Every structure is written in structure tokens, then in C-alpha cells.
TrEMBL record:
InterPro entries: Cyt_P450, Cyt_P450_sf. It holds the Pfam family p450. It comes from Gossypium stocksii. One of its GO terms (molecular function) is oxidoreductase activity, acting on paired donors, with incorporation or reduction of molecular oxygen. This is Uncharacterized protein.
Length: 179
């Protein structure tokens, strides 16, 4: 979280303030309609969820993955076919692996592999899915909800301290109304 949260705040700060205002509006509207910050309310925040998934696509907490296939299989792209043999070491760079076209995001979520497994798969003892993947997405959404409940827009100064990202808020525009 020491890496994930500062990067998320930086990433949201770098988008245009129009998007920040849309996030703030969505969050406040849903919370007012649903009577508070609940899981049900969080699941109604479509834009907030999309922002978190887009952030995780562009800046996955673990950008590189290594794996050893359990069976032979074939990988095809638009212009090539690759045979992968059981037991060979594979390397994956997640930023390339999980690019999702703007349309069909919900349909294609099953192809997102940011957590060592498909996003739609639960972690089990049989796969390498991150047991905390749902917590990561949820906590990122909660962070944005808390931030935009109190502030309309913000700007940050981003840097690095001891190989970890750091953010310092330069401006914080208070929310005109807090629910």
C-alpha cells in the first residue's frame, strides 16, 4: 500500500480536473442516494471502479510476472503463433498483457491478469492468484471515495523517496458540500 496508494493519488492528480470533478460528483451522488459508504454504494460507483481498474492496468503493483507452465499450450497474436512448452520459464510484462479496449471493458475483464490470475477468478490453493487482489481494488476505491468526499479537485507534487513513490499535496479544493 505504501507504493500503491501514492501512485494512485499521483495518477488521479495528473488527469484533467474535469475527471476529478466527475469522480467527486459520482461519489457524492451515490453516497447520498444509498445513505452512506457501503459495499453496495461502492459497487454503484461505475466511474470510480473504472478509474481504479485503469490505474491498475497502467500501473500494476507487480508489473513483472514469472511462471512455469504446467501444460504445453499455444499463444497467438494478430501476426504470430508461439508454442509454449511445459516447464519452460515465462516472463510477462503486465502493462502489455492487460490492455483492454475502451469498449467491452466489462466483457473483457476476464482477460485482465494483473493479480497472477484472471481478474474474474477467485484465489485458491490451486492457482497463483493474489489472495489480496479484491482487497487491493476495494481499498483503492475507498481511498478515492474518502478523498473526493472532502475535496473537489487536487494537485500533487510527485517524487521518489528511497525507491518508493511519494506525493505531496500542492492544492486541495474543498468540497462545497460533504455528505
Amino acid at each position: 500500500m505504501k507504493v500503491l496508494f501514492p501512485r494512485l493519488i499521483k495518477w488521479v492528480a495528473l488527469v484533467e480536473q474535469k475527471l476529478q470533478k466527475r469522480l467527486a460528483d459520482e461519489i457524492r451522488t451515490v453516497i447520498k442516494a444509498k445513505g452512506g459508504v457501503t459495499l453496495f454504494a461502492l459497487n454503484k460507483m461505475v466511474l470510480t471502479k473504472l478509474v481504479v481498474y485503469e490505474y491498475l492496468r497502467i500501473n500494476p503493483p507487480v508489473p513483472f510476472q514469472y511462471s512455469e507452465p504446467k501444460v504445453d499450450f499455444v499463444v497467438q497474436s494478430h501476426d504470430a503463433t508461439f508454442e509454449i512448452k511445459k516447464g519452460k520459464m515465462l516472463f510477462g510484462f503486465n502493462r502489455l498483457q492487460i490492455k483492454i479496449p475502451r469498449e467491452d471493458r466489462d466483457k473483457l475483464l476476464k482477460y485482465v491478469h494483473w493479480s497472477n490470475e484472471r481478474e474474474t477468478e477467485d484465489s485458491t490453493t490451486e492457482n497463483k492468484a493474489c489472495a489480496r487482489k479484491d482487497s487491493v481494488v476495494l481499498l483503492c476505491r475507498v481511498l478515492l471515495v474518502d478523498l473526493f468526499l472532502h475535496f473537489e479537485t487536487f494537485e500533487v507534487e510527485a517524487g521518489t523517496i528511497m525507491f518508493a513513490p511519494s506525493v505531496m499535496f500542492k492544492t486541495l479544493a474543498k468540497a462545497s458540500s460533504i455528505t
